[in-house]
Amino acid sequence: MILKIAVDVMSGDHGIKNNIDGCIQAVNEFGVSLILVGKENEINTELNKYNYDKKLIEIINAQDVITNEDKAGMSIRKKKESSMVKALYLVKEDIAQGVISSGNTGALLSGATLIVGRIKGIKRPALAPIIPTEKDGAVLIDAGANVDSKAKYLQQFGIMGSIYAEKVLKKNNPKVGLANIGEEATKGNLLVREAFPLLEEAPINFIGSIEIRDVFLGDTNVIVCDGFVGNTILKVGEGLAKTIFKTLKMELLKSFKSKIGAFLLKDSFRSLKAHLDYTEYGGAPFLGVNGCVIKAHGSSDAKAIKNAIRQAKDYLENEVTKEIGKAIREIEEAK
Amino acid sequence: MILKIAVDVMSGDHGIKNNIDGCIQAVNEFGVSLILVGKENEINTELNKYNYDKKLIEIINAQDVITNEDKAGMSIRKKKESSMVKALYLVKEDIAQGVISSGNTGALLSGATLIVGRIKGIKRPALAPIIPTEKDGAVLIDAGANVDSKAKYLQQFGIMGSIYAEKVLKKNNPKVGLANIGEEATKGNLLVREAFPLLEEAPINFIGSIEIRDVFLGDTNVIVCDGFVGNTILKVGEGLAKTIFKTLKMELLKSFKSKIGAFLLKDSFRSLKAHLDYTEYGGAPFLGVNGCVIKAHGSSDAKAIKNAIRQAKDYLENEVTKEIGKAIREIEEAK
Fold first, then answer.
1. Domains of chain B, CATH where assigned
2. Which of B189, B239, B264 sits opposite A228 (nearest CB)?
3. Which of A135, A171, A312, B19 could cross-link A98 (Cys pair, CB 3.0–4.6 Å)?
């Protein structure tokens, strides 16, 4: 069977041209089969600009678009003709096995749960982006899909994150840590205290609490947390990195000497920025749904779209959905 | 009445020499009255090195020390002869009005609550450091004292943070925001949803939710959150800033060109580091206890100790404790 990946080409900040550029790069580099979902005439206009293997790209026409201003759940139910909804239905009907969208996150999460559905036994699917660290990236799960989690959800996040890190990121026996705060309250809050023994029981390499200040060292491969905390980690990271670069830029423009220094360091700064750039790490899979659903960053450029497609390919070839289902079944049956 | 500030000179990573250096600087610059609490002979040896107004420094002998390895609550009860416990008793007995320690945070928070006690009507005291932003610093409350907060606590955090920002940071009508996560769940978690109307009721300039990614822009003067989330914000900030500087350093050593660039930018980097340095902003007051209790950063150098003393002086001169008590009484009576 040929695995197909549906791409919501109407989504994201950079529009259809950018997205199709990324799709063509992916087709030509990885030989993947794609289904582009969006306004057919616009897609064709773009595709005509490129050389590629025509067998590898299909088009599904969708005249409507879900925007970032749309309400998450409502738009999924009302905008049946939107590219996002149509792309999700392709996965539900097994016409495509994976879907990528850089659109409205809330809508994509609702849509994936409502249309594609959960893996049997999974309480709550979770968003699992990769955050940059000093070493490799680390999987952060949940990054914001569930803002009032129960301990049992966190146990499943640990299992799903571990499988993803092993299968897609190729980490051998990935280290899973529970995000916790420092010396002020070593034992953590109620949720963390309840989740701890459940993660110890799980068939994963659970290494215990990881202090949040150490998340960026990169020694832990999977960081488990409630969605509110995970989103906080993600957003503080994004916000602070921006602030640091802005402040640095102001410093660099202060004097003639600093301007020359800045000129000489152009490559270093670019390299640092790339290292910290979330888009370099592809998108965030929504783990626990019954198929491969990847949320690409809203600001994804063509390269980021290409990376998200490669990620979906790795996800599908390594049967992550099936592996998650198996692990959850085993832990339930062991009881 | 002369206001006196007790300093736990045995605390912190840099030891007694460093702390007394900071105390002398504060005495000579601000004319404050200090009570140094610690090993008397060691204190005297240090003091003999300096010129200062002898009337402004008293010594209270304390032979024991609470370390970072000590358990918080236990050490307060057992180590009666420690510098931290003795310093806190000085405030309880109104011999000193404020206390500064850069020691074990958990012990200081427990000790402050147990020994100094809460302001009448305050449910939970909260730790309120200032975090660096693109503009000024912002007050983050609670940064880790309470890891399972109720909505009512968050209302009080907003009131206390607002008074502190107005009286000590000299913000006119400070803007108070409730830390919330982005588009993935606009309404936030249960706690945030419950706290929102209570903060609207409070006699403060509540501006609604603030997205965590925007915290570092500095448009909001007071960021209200549960201690687990607040500690996460603080620790992600610390950890990421370290990672960025470490990665940048590696980039700068990569080539001859980058080394020259780095040399030319030495001042710029130093200035950026200073901007992001928490110790520049003094310590974190523990708001809601019945006196001025300030937790200085463990790595406080002499200048940071001096800044924490100035902060205590501003706190006391502006009667922050009394103002908090008044505001809490008013909101309770209004019901």
1. 1-122+288-318 (3.40.718.10), 128-281 (3.40.718.10)
2. B189
3. A312
Phi, psi angles (nearest 5°) of residue B315: -60, -45
Q: Taking the model in full, what pTM does it have?
A: 0.89
In DSSP notation, B104-170 reads -HHHHHHHIIIII-BPTT-S--EE-PEEP-SSS-EEEE-SSS-SS--HHHHHHHHHHHHHHHHHTS-
CA B154 to chain centre: 18
* Chain A positions in Cβ-Cβ contact with residue B213 (cut-off 8 Å): 235-236, 238-239
| A238: closest CA of chain B, how far (Å) | 6
Report how far residue A276's alpha carbon sits from residue A244's, in angstroms, rounded to the nearest whole number.
12
Q: Are B140 and B129 in contact (CB under 8 A)?
A: yes
| Tokens standing for residue B334 | 């209004």
What phi and psi values does residue B80 have, to the nearest 5 degrees? Answer: -65, -25
- Spell out the residues 6+ positions from residue B227 whose beta carbon is closer than 8 angstroms to its own: A181, A184, A185, B126, B127, B142, B143, B144, B145, B146, B147, B149
Per the structure block, which two tokens stand in for B242?
A: 């370290």
Suggest the residue from A264, A270, A276 to mutate for an interface test with chain B (most B CBs closer than 10 A).
A264
Cβ contacts of A74 within 8 Å, gap of 6 or more: none
Distance from C-alpha of B94 to C-alpha of B117, rounded to nearest angstrom: 12
**Residue in A closest to B239 by C-alpha:** A213
| pLDDT tens digits, one per residue of A135-180 | 888 999 999 999 899 999 999 999 999 999 999 999 999 999 999 9
Residue B6: name the closest of B291, B300, B303 by CA. B291
**Residue B285 in contact with residue B294, Cβ under 8 Å?**
yes
For residue A138, list its beta bridge partners: A131
Between B67 and A277, name the one with better pLDDT. B67
Q: Contact at 8 Å (CB) between B312 and B294? A: yes
* Complex ipTM more than 0.90, yes or no: no
Q: Average pLDDT, whole number, for chain B?
A: 91
| DSSP string for residues in B270-303 | HHHHHHH-GGGG--EEEETBSSEEEE--TT--HH
| Structure token digits, residue B175 | 């803007």
Residue type, B273: K
Closest residue in A to B72 (Cα) is: A184
Alpha carbons within 13 A on the beta-carbon side of B275: 20
Q: Which two tokens stand for residue B324?
A: 């908090």
- Sign of the C-alpha dihedral computed for residues A164, A168, A169 and A171 taken in this order: positive
